[in-house]
Amino acid sequence: MTTRVQSLAQSGLSRVPPQYIQPPQTRPVRHTAPEPDSIPVIDLSSFDPTQRASTRDSIARACREWGAFHVTNHGVPPSLLASLRRAGLSFFSDTPIPDKLRYSCSAAASEGYGSKMLATTTSDQNDAVQVLDWRDYFDHHTLPLSRRNPNRWPEFPADYRELVATYSDEMKILAQKLLALISESLGLRASCIEDAVGEFYQNITISYYPPCPEPDLTLGLQSHSDMGAITLLIQDDVGGLQVLKGGNKWVTVQPLSDAILVLLADQTEIITNGKYRSCEHRAITNPDRARLSVATFHDPAKTVKISPASELINDSSLAKYRDVVYGDYVSSWYTKGPGGKRNIDALLLDP
Ligand SMILES: O=C(O)CCC(=O)C(=O)O
Ligand SMILES: [Fe+2]
């Protein structure tokens, strides 16, 4: 069974164990001065037709420049976001570790309480070395309803299961709204991306990053892009999520109370034929405070074949990505590990 990072952190270590030490090239660089650049914020309240055009333009710019943006006035009650963060934090910080271990998940992508999501190796003097993330998590299978079994989720606090179920339903509605706006921002039919994805397979992962004694040597979550279509993320006020801008600059996403962060994922990159790239991101740790985030992933079914939208392909704009059956993409992702964007880049026809 994998060690939980929280038990290591609570044992009062002053150094992190060697398997959590990143090689020099992937260690985080801490920003001391305020960063000049920040993730765009898009107000979704203006759903009347005249404003919709300017919302679409802002979305187009954010998707091209960042592959990520915050949304405000998104229709999800702020009290629900706060309650879910509170319930998640209570599971991680108030439940004794032996009780949490009753919910242990067995392998990558299975439901439950775990720590090592990603098998990743880095080469150290020709020996393959596995580097672990400084993170524990709880993964919930939430949609379609046939996958949702709240009995597998924590039963404390008392409203935990109901909150996760309500949150799942709200995130589905928001993901549909956003995929429609993103499609339209490319001049496509509103339903174009959602039709290509099909019924959403939705997972909700609550991540808990304990304080880390050596934050300059570790990552809470190594660099990756999410493999599905679209991810909706909320975090607490601690901060630590970073997105890669322009392929070379890590920018910290400043927590914005009540906003929801939208991250474009790999299948949207394929469907839009690379007009919008998926967002590469990672989480850093800090020495003082534990951090909590909730990521809601919206993926195709494993049997769905994903290819660039036919509306975007013509004689002067050829398909840039190979078609892929989503289940094959997922298997290969877990076999190779994330490694930034190497999985999606491997599908490029002419890299
Ligand atoms: O903790 C975060 O902010 C990032 C989580 C994430 O990227 C993921 O779960 O895929
Ligand atoms: Fe992610």
UniProtKB/TrEMBL annotation:
GO molecular function: 2-oxoglutarate-dependent dioxygenase activity; L-ascorbic acid binding; metal ion binding
A Pfam short name: DIOX_N
Region: Disordered, residue numbers: 1-40
InterPro entries tied to this protein: DIOX_N, IPNS-like_FE2OG_OXY, IPNS-like_sf, Oxoglu/Fe-dep_dioxygenase_dom, Plant_2OG-oxidoreductases
Composition bias type Polar residues, residue spans: 1-13
Statement: the UniProt record of this protein carries the keyword Iron: yes
Keyword Iron: yes
SUPFAM superfamilies the UniProt entry points to: Clavaminate synthase-like
Signal peptide (UniProt feature, chain positions): none
Residue span(s) of domain Fe2OG dioxygenase: 199-300
Keywords in alphabetical order: Iron, Metal-binding, Oxidoreductase, Vitamin C
Family: Belongs to the iron/ascorbate-dependent oxidoreductase family.
Protein name, UniProt field: Fe2OG dioxygenase domain-containing protein
Organism listed in the record: Glycine max (Soybean)
Lineage: Eukaryota, Viridiplantae, Streptophyta, Embryophyta, Tracheophyta
